[in-house]
Amino acid sequence: MRSILSLLRTILLKEIPVQQPVSRLTDLDAARGLAIILVVVGHVVARGAVPLDNEWYLTLQKLIYRFHMPFFMCLAGITFALALPQLRCLREVTVFSKRRVARLLIPYLFVGLVVLVGKLIAGRFLHVDNPPAGTSDDVLRILLYPVSSVAGFLWFIYVLAAYLLAVPALFRFFGRRPLPLLLFGLLLQLVPVPMLFMLDMAVWYLPFFAGGMALWIWRSRWERMTDRATAIASALFLLALIFALPFELPKWLVGLLSIPAMLAWAQRLTGAWQSALVLVGRNSFAIYLFNTMAIGVSKGLMLTTFSWNGVNFLVYFPILVLAGTLLPMLLKRLLCVAIPAAARFL
Question: The whole model's pTM is what?
Answer without folding.
Answer: 0.93
